[in-house]
Amino acid sequence: MTSAPAFDQHIPETAARTVEFISLSHLNPSTELNPIPTRGIDPAYFTTYVRALEDGGYDYTLLPYGSGTADSFVTAAAVGQLTERIKPIVALRPNTTLPQVAAQKLATLDQLTEGRAVVHLISGGSDAEQARHGDYLPKERRYARTSEYIDLLRRSWTEPAPFSHDGEFYKFDGFGPGFAPYDTPIPISIGGQSDEAFQVGGEKADVFSFWGEPLDDLRAEIERVHAIARGAGRTTLPRIWVTFRPIIAETDELAWRKAHAYVDKIAATFAKSGFGKQIFQQGSPQNVGSQRALSFADRADLYDRALWTRTAAVTNAAGASTALVGSPETVAAAILDYVDRGADLVSIRGYDTLNDAVDYGKYVLPLVRQEIAHREATGRRGTLQAEHLGNYTEDYRRYATAGQA
């Protein structure tokens, strides 16, 4: 049983004061619910998708990267030209692009989009995936490379004269001055759950990203990364990015009917390695984030107000896969629970990708923003979290377990 937390209108000290929303951009209509064999880009679909994000009020979109995917720099540039406000986040692996070259490419994107570029550095959680691009650096050293990479990105953007570098992973002579960003330095995000990830992220990242976890566990991880930041003498702490896969419908009961139908389809797709890079993600995952997600799924299906782990269990936690299930009000209240724990960048992307992105923009984002505006105006929490209790009620738990053995 999950007991409802005591609620009052006091804003927790840990709460983020602002919230921005992220989605992942999809290049074609293939989904985990309905996989379509393709490795290509459907330009019409991609255009429709990113413009739906702009119309829906999202702030950022992540352009993913893998050894068999489209190039994230090129797709980010396309997002920049197809939208006026969305900030494209380039997913970048340090082994694929020299840091001074990446600095030029990112600054070019930033100038073309008038200051909207963001970069998310992926150190690499799988030896096999890294090897596909010829990277054989041991996992425990990849974050050390990322640390050196961050320093060189920032120096390339700001150094007023040519400079040389002779480090553990990179060496060059007389580079620069590099091509500058539009205005301010480009935000750098990293993620990961290993000790090395926390150390580099706490010391150097502008943003640290997590997958959706139970509230208390995530808060402990936020405190950990912020403690490292303070220990490094930072006065500006990393922003916190958390990712969910919401499943919504008009009521909690209808959302659970959808969720049970979805998980069966997702499990079948994964069993056939029928979507994206799932063919590479069988067996025990090497990255700590997936290991944690599976451990939560082993312990329980449901956590807190609306966090569901079954979707992680049936996909072997292949990427961000934990869901929030319920009506738009229940899911918005659950997002606010995470905001209260310190998350100020919330990534929500669905399993029915385009339709979900549109629905979140219509029905979820406005509720969260209304609550944040209420807090700013009054200094107190509104009543959404008190009125839509989700898993803290018997009815919700009954819907969640309906039809299960």
UniProtKB/TrEMBL annotation:
Transmembrane segments: none annotated. InterPro entries: Luciferase-like_dom (IPR011251), Luciferase-like_sf (IPR036661), SsuD_RutA_monooxygenase (IPR050172). It comes from the Bacteria. One of its GO terms (molecular function) is monooxygenase activity. The keyword Flavoprotein applies. The keyword Flavoprotein applies. Keywords: Flavoprotein, FMN, Monooxygenase, Oxidoreductase. Residues 37-344 form the Luciferase-like domain. It holds the Pfam family Bac_luciferase. CDD domains: Alkanesulfonate_monoxygenase. PANTHER family: ALKANESULFONATE MONOOXYGENASE, ALKANESULFONATE MONOOXYGENASE-RELATED. This is Alkanesulfonate monooxygenase.
